[in-house]
Amino acid sequence: MRDTVTVPEVRGRKRAQGAQPIVMITAYDTPSAKIVDESLADIILVGDSLGMVVLGYDNTLAVTMEDMIHHVSAVKRSDPKALLVADMPWMSYHVSVRESVLNAASLIRAGANAVKLEGGQNRLDVIHAINDAEIPVMGHLGLTPQSVNAFGGFKVQAREEATRKRLLEDALAICEAGVFAVVLEGIPSEAAKEVTEAIGVPTIGIGAGPNCDGQVLVFHDLLGYSLGRKPKFVRSYETFAESGIAALALFREDVIEGRYPKEAESYK
Ligand code: KIV
């Protein structure tokens, strides 16, 4: 039985100081959260990738607070030892500081230990206020999916000198505002290295190369639990979709051929 993972423990996990890299994996329901927790991941992220991975949307913008509360509650019911971080969905922290704090609190009441939100210097008031309510905040910079329309698509960020400088300034600013870790998504490895060396809290990369203090991937991508093209940075360790289709086809044949159910699978 392992110990519960806490925010202060994660905050101190800098590889440069000899710490083990952080492993964060998404989950959206009770069984997937149980599997992630059994794998000894440090953090379970109920990401708003929920919208794309589970609910079938093209991006994360359709995900609501109600969706997040529903899925955070389901993940919490798995009773994980991993730290449970919940994404604040688009428009839940963009209208007013007061609304942002109340929305963060709703995610904590649903079972999260901390919230994650996207953005840099434009989000400092919100980060301060949520921290003031004793709610730990994880930052998210680079290819922030909620900015898909502003970016004109899911495009690698911080490739030019000016945007790289801006990324570094954003990272330093949100750290000053009190985030306990920063997700770096869809940026060149060198830019991630620069940020990781400059800030005092851990970076957790996705499509950000090997120099971060940890890595995060989506549950369905890791297990090959979806069909279609995957981004370059995804490594699938299983082929759930293919083996699942094959297994379900066997069930179908058994039903058609009268091989299922057998006596032993029936009640007397
Ligand atoms: O929504 C999500 O799953 C995320 C991670 C991929 C970082 O934000």
What is the number of helical segments per DSSP (H or I, 4+ residues)? 11
**Count of distinct strands:** 8
Q: Percent of residues in helical segments? A: 25-40%
Low-confidence regions? none
Strand residue content: 5-15%
CATH class bucket of the largest domain: Alpha Beta
Specify the biggest β-sheet: 8 strands, parallel, barrel
SSE ordering: HEHEHHEHEHEHHEHEEHH
What is the number of domains? 2
| Backbone shape | globular
Going across the biggest sheet, name each strand in turn. Answer: 1-2-3-4-5-6-7-8
Ions, cofactors and other ligands present here are: 3-methyl-2-oxobutanoic acid
CATH architecture tag of the largest domain: Alpha-Beta Barrel
Mean pLDDT across all amino acids: 98
C-alpha end-to-end distance: 40 Å
The CATH topology of the largest domain turns out to be: TIM Barrel
From the alpha carbons, calculate the radius of gyration and give it in angstroms: 20 Å
Full CATH superfamily name of the largest domain: Phosphoenolpyruvate-binding domains
Question: Can you describe what's shown?
Answer:
There is one protein chain. The protein has helices at residues 7-11, 30-38, 50-53, 65-76, 97-109, 124-132, 148-151, 161-177, 189-198, 219-222, 240-256; strands at residues 22-26, 43-46, 83-87, 114-118, 137-142, 181-185, 203-206, 214-217. The chain is globular and about 65 Å long. It folds into two domains: 7-237, Phosphoenolpyruvate-binding domains (TIM Barrel), CATH 3.20.20; 240-268. It is an alpha/beta fold. The relative contact order is 0.12. The chain is built from eleven helices and eight strands. The chain has an eight-stranded parallel beta barrel with strand order 1-2-3-4-5-6-7-8, surrounded by six helices. The chain binds 3-methyl-2-oxobutanoic acid (KIV).
